[in-house]
Amino acid sequence: MSRPLTASEPLVAARAEPVLEVVDVVKRYGRREALRGVSLTASRGERVAVIGPNGAGKTTLLSILAGDQKPDEGRISRSPSEIGWVPQQSALYGKLTVAENLRLFARLERRPDVQATVERMLDQTDLRDRAGDQVGQLSGGNRQRVNIAIGLLSAPAVLLLDEPSAALDPRQRQRLWEFIAGLADEGTTVIFSTHNVQEAERHAHQLVVLADGERLFGGSPAELEAAVGASGDFEAAFVSFLHDRGH
Amino acid sequence: MRWLLVKDLQILRRSPLLVALLVLYPIVLAVLIGFALSRGPDKPRVAVLNQVPESGNVISLGGEEIDASKYSKQLFEAVDPVRVSSRQEALEKVRDGEVLAALIVPSDLTAKLQSAVEPGTVEVFYNAEDPVKRQYVENTIEAQVRDANVALSRKFTEVAVSYIDLIVSGGDFSFLGRELDILGLIKSEALLRLAQENLPQTSVARAQVEEVIRFARLARENLDLSDDVLGSVGEPIRVKATVIEGGSTPLSSFAAAVAVTVTLMFVTLLLASGMLALEREENAFRRLVRGLVSRTALLGEKVGLAAACSAVLALVMLIGLALFIELEWSRLPLWVAGIVAGALAFGAMGVAIGAVTREVRAASLLAFMVSLPIAFLALVPSGSVSEGLYDVTRALSALFPFRPTLDAMDAALNDSGSMLGPLLHLLALTLGFGLIGRLAIRRLG
Ligand SMILES: Nc1ncnc2c1ncn2[C@@H]1O[C@H](COP(=O)(O)OP(=O)(O)O)[C@@H](O)[C@H]1O
Ligand SMILES: [Mg+2]
């Protein structure tokens, strides 16, 4: 696993290669606007964090990219079938083993070589010695890994993770970020959501700040720091940044 | 879709407790419902036409009087009698399902009983629609008639015995207001012997009288025995039963149809709704419908899974029942047709339930809550409620698969009518509930 990236290491080489373009996406639930014209561009191997308080529209944005919901307006450059999706709550069958879950979804995804795909995922997510365990009996961290493995079955160019670290303890969290960094290093574009600003700052190349469905900021961690004007407490500075913009 | 089926079967195999409950519960319930049904409804409505005039209610036998109305009163306590004024009206009420049966007491009943020459006959018309309630009414009427018969034949015997006594021993007898002195066989024999002794030894008449004496002795000895014979005679009132409307189904095989339908209902509803709700509870639903499986295919898979499991169980149950009750094996293809059609309709209803619930527990609870009333609604016997209410129960029952499945199984097991109607009805319900499920799952995501 590769070491975690920090904000001081900007992604340079990959910038040239846009993998996903999202333009002016609008989503309404009745009269309520959950997304008000959100845009975003991601490159190959880039890690993008979508940050914002609860109810900001992070899940709505990711699930639209995943094809789970249809946007009311806007354009997305890539078909959902080419995008891997790791929902916040694990979508797995508790009564099936890790290997059985992987095999089932590999079959449903019509992978050419099911067994080879399962083996690859077991290795990649370090779950080989758990392969025969029922998912319902796994720890939260391991279950999250199976959840991610299923999102990666089709070796997608883009992987979406909705609040992947929310239910993990610090050690599991550390391993998650290492895994994500490794994935991105091999060329997968990773878009994740979080409400933890510091985490986003540490592990993403690009930050997209959402509040009430509105995109307030887009740029590198350094640019956000400059905009927020953090001196000591970044989190507090971020909150007042949102506050100043009416959120 | 094949892999989803395999997955669901794997999940079921790993939930042995759930599967055991799913199999045992409907069987226990089917048995209980069978018991409840065989006890029959309380006080069924019976149309009664009593053509015997008020004055004819008393039968006089050998100087003693029997009040026939005593037995009809007992009968009326066991049923809810509906007085009618004509045979026509009685039959119409049976045909309309307004009453469970009609009892017609002919005007000549007491006269026939009084004459004691030929038995009197009462007529009973049953509604063939439901053998359970028919059997109850049948038992009730037969029990009363039996009581009356026992009392009447005891009287008849007493009277006959007293007549025989008179013939054997002689005595006074009043007939049409005249007092008669009856000689009796004993005295006849004695008189004849006296007469014989007075005849000359050579007279031909002496041998002839000897023959008469022998006859008188033989008659006396044998008539003494006839008391016992008379005691066992006796069905003064006969019941002539007619079943109106359709064929008749013996209770046990009707109970088998009920048991199979109850089993199909519970297993299919619980499995289909539960397994669909599980997809949502496990959150897998969203992943599946993201291009892996269409929503329609997912619903189809659940209907198929639940229907296949419950159909196998129902068939095994039916084959088990066939060891105890008489079922026609040659009709096996019809059993299968009824079971499969019923299972599919219940499966579709199950996915409709599963589609509106998000959790297995909620789905199971809802499945339970709807199935019991549907079953009881479909089993409400005609005549046990008012006509208007009965029509409502029939109309409501038609909206759910229980009644048509029961009709199909009854037809398949008992040849009680055509299967085509119920099968088409079930097909329509399968499509209807399938559509409801499909719409619900689109709306609720
Ligand atoms: N299915 C839905 N129906 C109606 N409103 C919804 C639905 N999903 C989300 N919302 C609303 O949209 C807004 C954004 O929600 P969400 O994307 O889940 O926020 P986040 O993931 O950032 O916490 C919230 O106000 C939420 O209540
Ligand atoms: Mg969210």
Helix-residue proportion of chain A: 25-40%
Helix-strand makeup class of chain A: alpha/beta
Beta strand count of chain B: 9
So what's the CATH class of one domain in chain A? Alpha Beta
Strand content of chain B: 5-15%
Q: Give me the side-by-side strand order of the main sheet of chain A.
A: 5-6-7-3-8-9
Cα Rg of chain B: 34 Å
Strand order of the largest sheet of chain B: 4-1-5-6-9
Q: Characterize the main sheet of chain A.
A: 6 strands, mixed
Poorly predicted ranges of chain A (pLDDT <50, ≥5 residues)? Answer: 1-8
Task: Characterize the biggest β-sheet of chain B.
Answer: 5 strands, mixed
Number of helices of chain B: 16
- Which two chains share the most extensive interface? A-B, 23 and 18 residues
| Percentage beta strand of chain A | 15-25%
Write up this protein.
The complex is a heterodimer of chains A (247) and B (445). Chain A is globular. The longest helix of chain A is centred in the last third of the chain and has 16 residues, at 170-185. In chain A, helix 2 crosses helix 3. Chain A is 34% helix and 24% strand. Chain A has a six-stranded mixed beta sheet, with helices on both faces. Chain A has a domain at 7-78 and 190-247: P-loop containing nucleotide triphosphate hydrolases (Rossmann fold), CATH 3.40.50.300. By secondary structure, chain A is α/β, with parallel strands linked by helices. Chain B has 445 residues and is an alpha/beta fold. Chain B has three domains: 2-39 and 249-444, no CATH class; 45-161 and 231-245, abc type-2 transporter like domain (abc type-2 transporter like fold), CATH 3.40.1710; 166-227, no CATH class. Helix content of chain B is 68%, strand content 11%. Chain B has 16 helices and nine strands. Chain B has helices at 2-13, 16-39, 69-78, 87-95, 109-115, 131-169, 185-198, 204-232, 251-281, 284-289, 295-322, 332-356, 360-378, 387-397, 402-414, 420-444, and strands spanning 45-50, 58-61, 64-67, 80-83, 101-105, 120-127, 171-175, 178-182, 237-244. Chain B has a five-stranded mixed beta sheet, sandwiched between helices. Chain B has a two-stranded antiparallel ribbon with strand order 2-3. The longest helix of chain B has 39 residues, at 131-169. Chain B is elongated. The mean pLDDT of chain B is 82. The chains are: A alpha/beta (247), B alpha/beta (445). The interface between A and B is medium-sized, with 23 and 18 residues. Adenosine-5'-diphosphate (ADP) binds next to helix 1 of chain A.
